[in-house]
Specification:
This protein is mainly alpha-helical. The protein has 4 helices and 2 strands, in the order ααββαα.
Length: about 100
Amino acid sequence: MDLLHHNKNVCDQCGEKFENHEDLIAHARHVHHHPIVKCHECGKEFIHEKDRLHHVREEHQVKVDHRTHKWEHSQETNKGNPQTDLDEHMRNFGDNF
């Protein structure tokens, strides 16, 4: 299992291994002049966009799911009342038809 940990911190350009993610990022930035992408939520840096996207799904998607669930719950409680639906629509869109 220790081998898997080290594979996560291997430079895909030259194969150099690092003890932690931050050292790999610094290496990529300084040695290979590799562009770094940042997470918009927490600022963590990644070498590849696919890694940033995976991080966002794993670390930050729970927050989005929580908000969605909260919205769905509020919709459940208001279901079946046309006036409530109209009031909600007017709050969201006003008279911008």
